[in-house]
């Protein structure tokens, strides 16, 4: 049989962990920027030294965020090494600190292998592949990178002559998925909470990527992963933590939310993601990229280098894909037109209402109204400079609606609700913590949905914003789930103003600045089990925290937010309002400062070569238009334009004389030059 020629994977380690062994051993130590030296025995090294695992060197951990943070150049390779190390450390800690658990070396090895191989199946640019490209190309296929990890793990064993008993291989793959039902025999339940914890999200995968990604973007962290690992203890087949580390655990979850808000979903990184997906979609009929996920031999070479493969091709059928990737290279990106943040429970409604078609229809409706005789002067003024060609050409293909759900690890619930704690006085009793056992200043909401609108062509920027805001104007924030309404009745304060349930507020609590308000008497906590949200834990959700939800700070007569309105009869009528920081004119067309400067230079060259500055005049007008709309504020359009013009125009050598020189003088006088 073929198995006789293979290496018995779990037997390679033999006794390398035996303390009685003296002198040199077969342990290899990998230097890591996060965990220092990572010691692995022959079993783990045999997996590392395979083409399937080495492939991860060519897949960026943060995908397109590398285009925004040049330091975020780390790959899935080092992340998987870190997860394997933490998984091994945690398993050994539990084995040694609680011998009664009966953890064997085989358990430690399988958990470590699962940590090492959990991301074997990631495709190009990490989550761009499995969460964006594959769903767009194969919408009927239920697939995730963990599925590919199992596929690649089988290929790794087969093609590298490594033998793992069927029950052990099934155990490793079940650990990767966090699914006990996939095993061939009963296994210890708590081991499934180490690599992929489906119970509360606290696992070594999260421990490593939060620390590693924070380090890559030079964000200082106060997290102590070692403390959390050595704080862990198995009680009733569940990994529990010392109550002293509750805030450390929440800090971990809070950092996760912060990374998602600032790094993973950065507007530029998301724009490049959509450009890459568009390029791959254009290349799919020629290169059949999506088909490669079914064949491990082809998937082995499917990495971030697919971009270079497309760019280097001489096939004329790839011209459109190459043009999009060229735009990424020269930073001519899709434009972020507008954004707004909504409560978590709005996800399905937002997906239904905000579509490229609805945005385009909203604009066309407004445009047609502006052409009517009885149109208001304000509407006519708004559209007076909008060209009919652009208004007619705008279509759904020019609009992208991005909906991103962000949370602390357990969707819209407090992650601490799902963790059990022990104390030094009761080390064998794991129970949930009450709110006042931890803090009453935690956030009042734990999840939110960000809606961002992009346009593929910058000439449609202002038009797309008009269409989006027309849809937004008619959008009503749906009421929260009924269970929330029952636990959070509308109340009046001493001023007679109705206080809205927190999930009705369109403006989210910024996780970087958690509210720290004193709970009012009406929000005090009763005995354990009272005033819990639908999450069922003692923290519940917004209502169970109490801070700010029923506080006594002054508010406007219609509630705390301009975005929220309440019917005095008691029914909540909540409408979203425009983002006041992103408003531009309909004719606004964003331009990169570098590309604008080049345009001015070309205009001067044309002017010096042949006479009248017709080309230069066009460039000047476009530059001025860009600056006018970015001036913001009140006043007339002319006033905003003059006050908004900055050094870019002052540095130009105006050769037209006359009015240009007078304008230049006015600008300098306004700026105090």
TrEMBL record:
GO terms for molecular function: dGTPase activity. One of its GO terms (cellular component) is nucleus. GO terms for biological process: dGTP catabolic process. Residues 637-665 have a biased composition (Basic and acidic residues). SMART domains: HDc. InterPro entries: dGTPase-like, HD/PDEase_dom, HD_domain. It holds the Pfam family HD. Residues 615-629 have a biased composition (Low complexity). Residues 72-219 form the HD/PDEase domain. Residues 504-538, 585-673 are annotated as: Disordered. Coiled coil: none annotated. This is HD-domain/PDEase-like protein. It comes from Trametes coccinea (strain BRFM310) (Pycnoporus coccineus). The lineage of its organism: Eukaryota, Fungi, Dikarya, Basidiomycota, Agaricomycotina.
């Amino acid at each position: 049989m073929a198995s006789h020629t293979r290496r018995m994977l779990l037997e390679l380690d033999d006794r390398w962990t035996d303390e009685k062994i003296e002198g040199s051993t077969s342990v290899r130590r990998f230097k890591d920027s996060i965990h220092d030296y990572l010691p692995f025995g022959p079993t783990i090294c045999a997996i590392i030294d395979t083409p399937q695992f080495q492939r991860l060197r060519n897949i960026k951990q943060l995908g397109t965020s590398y285009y925004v943070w040049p330091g975020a150049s780390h790959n899935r390779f080092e992340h998987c090494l870190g997860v394997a190390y933490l998984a091994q450390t945690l398993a050994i800690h539990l084995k040694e600190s609680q011998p009664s658990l009966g953890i064997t070396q085989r358990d430690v090895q399988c958990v470590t292998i699962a940590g090492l191989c959990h991301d074997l199946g990631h495709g190009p640019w990490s989550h761009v592949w499995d969460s964006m490209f594959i769903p767009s190309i194969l919408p009927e296929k239920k697939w995730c990178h963990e599925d590919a990890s199992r596929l690649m793990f089988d290929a790794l064993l087969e093609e590298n002559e490594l033998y793992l008993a069927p029950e052990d291989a099934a155990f490793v793959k079940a650990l990767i998925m966090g699914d006990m039902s996939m095993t061939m025999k009963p296994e210890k339940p708590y081991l499934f909470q180490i690599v992929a914890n489906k119970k509360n999200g606290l696992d070594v995968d999260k421990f490593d990527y939060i620390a590693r990604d924070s380090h890559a973007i030079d964000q200082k962290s106060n997290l102590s992963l070692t403390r959390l690992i050595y704080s862990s203890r198995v009680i009733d087949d569940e990994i529990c933590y010392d109550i002293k580390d509750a805030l450390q655990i929440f800090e971990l979850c809070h950092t996760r939310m912060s990374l998602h808000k600032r790094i993973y979903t950065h507007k530029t990184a998301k724009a490049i993601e959509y450009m890459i997906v568009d390029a791959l979609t254009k290349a799919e009929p020629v290169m059949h990229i999506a088909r490669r996920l079914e064949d491990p031999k082809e998937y082995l070479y499917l990495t971030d280098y697919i971009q270079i493969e497309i760019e280097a091709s001489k096939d004329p059928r790839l011209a459109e894909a190459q043009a999009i990737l060229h735009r990424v290279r020269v930073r001519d990106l899709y434009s972020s037109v507008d954004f707004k943040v909504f409560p978590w429970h709005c996800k399905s409604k937002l997906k239904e209402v905000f579509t490229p078609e609805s945005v385009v229809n909203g604009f066309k409706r407004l445009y047609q109204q502006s052409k009517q005789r009885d149109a208001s002067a304000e509407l006519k003024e708004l559209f007076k400079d909008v060209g009919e060609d652009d208004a007619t050409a705008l279509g759904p293909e020019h609009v992208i609606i991005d909906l991103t759900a962000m949370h602390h690890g357990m969707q819209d619930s407090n992650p601490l609700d799902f963790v059990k704690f022990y104390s030094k006085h009761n080390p064998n009793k794991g129970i949930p913590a009450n709110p006042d056992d931890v803090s009453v200043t935690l956030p009042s909401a734990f999840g939110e949905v960000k809606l961002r609108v992009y346009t593929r062509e910058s000439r449609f920027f202002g038009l797309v914003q008009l269409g989006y805001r027309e849809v937004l104007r008619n959008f009503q924030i749906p009421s929260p789930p009924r269970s929330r309404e029952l636990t959070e009745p509308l109340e009046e304060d001493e001023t007679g103003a109705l206080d809205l349930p927190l999930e009705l507020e369109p403006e989210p609590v910024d996780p970087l600045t958690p509210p720290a308000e004193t709970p009012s008497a009406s929000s005090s906590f009763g005995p354990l089990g009272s005033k819990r949200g639908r999450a069922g834990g003692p923290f519940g959700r917004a209502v169970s925290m109490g801070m700010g939800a029923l506080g006594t700070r002054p508010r406007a007569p219609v509630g705390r937010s301009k975005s929220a309105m309440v019917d005095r009869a008691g029914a909540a009528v909540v409408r979203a309002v425009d983002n006041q920081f992103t408003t531009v004119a309909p004719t606004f067309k964003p331009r990169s400062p570098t590309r604008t400067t080049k345009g001015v230079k070309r205009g001067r060259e044309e002017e010096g070569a042949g006479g009248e500055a017709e080309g230069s005049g066009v460039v000047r007008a476009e530059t001025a238009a860009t600056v006018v709309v970015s001036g913001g504020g009140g006043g007339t359009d002319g006033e905003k334009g003059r006050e908004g013009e900055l050094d870019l125009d002052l540095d130009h050598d105006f050769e037209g004389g006359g009015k240009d020189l007078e304008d230049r003088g006015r600008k300098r006088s306004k700026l105090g030059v």
